[in-house]
């Protein structure tokens, strides 16, 4: 691969993974500042899950009809328009509709960008290109630092400026997409199937008791995992943190090291052992958060944030690697779709359903929450997932 091509692919991956966290990480704290916005907090928590269901449709468009770079640019341009309109929206229902449109357009871009990179880079180079995505996610916090320090916008992460920043990055993403090498549709003329795209044909794998047990463990673990993605900045806001996005993104900074160590961990511990380690890290996260809320020692929250890469790497990427290994060749793509449906889709909806009810019962007179209750519930769910994995999973060491 030529250096200019590698740099273009790395730049694309950097920008595409920056667009979403610029505004999504702190959308809940912002929505709560609007008149009547509190009622829309659960909807904001479900945005990522809803967007995941739209992803296969856009990916099929890139596979069968249009050049992938043009599909990526179209999604980014339209998302920039939606986010730009969200900057001016003060009505929670209108804002919710615009953010839903932006999410439905942006969630597929991760898959399309990965497909473009894999089409023009050798397999050995892809991990390094993908790592630029993690760097882009972490770098999204730069907007809040610059806005607060140099432009005097206090509480930037709780203002509509997050959508203006997201629109600007999305527009930049569209321009980088247009600069990509041609990636014509490889499956042009073949039948379309949402069932295949969502991985629903992989349900046959549930006949294996180990896969069934793993699926149950994942669903249970995704409740506290996905809650962290959508709601943790609400806790950080109420705990008195100023740089919400920056603090949250420290987990992505640490993720780079954990992702490099992931193959070694799986090789040394086996799939079951490494998955138990990831679940233990999930429990450790909520021990830290619980003690931080219980004792008022907010610095303990950093412990729960910094293990994000270990949790994500094992419970998401590690499971994807395992499913690719055990699934028959004819079901490997569907198996990957099934994992994403289980974790980002169903897991996201379950998370909002559980934690919205818990949070609603913990509201104090000043509108703040008693965070010890949801953190304790998340800890218990994490321990339960660890116990289920230890007892029920009987897959072979690989």
User: From the helix content, strand content and strand pairing, which structural class follows?
Assistant: mainly alpha
- Tell me the number of helical segments per DSSP (H or I, 4 or more residues long): 16
Q: What's the overall geometry?
A: globular
Instruction: State the CATH architecture of the largest domain.
Output: Up-down Bundle
The low-confidence parts are none
In total, the number of strands is: 0
- Give the termini separation: 32 Å
Strand and helix order? HHHHHHHHHHHHHHHH
For the record, what CATH class of the largest domain applies? Mainly Alpha
CATH T-level topology of the largest domain: Growth Hormone, Chain: A
* CA gyration radius, whole angstroms: 20 Å
In helices, the fraction of residues equals: over 70%
Please tell me the overall pLDDT: 88
Under CATH, the homologous superfamily of the largest domain reads: MFS general substrate transporter like domains
Biggest β-sheet description:
none
Please report which band the strand proportion falls in: under 5%, 5-15%, 15-25%, 25-35%, 35-45% or over 45%. under 5%
Tally the structural domains.
2
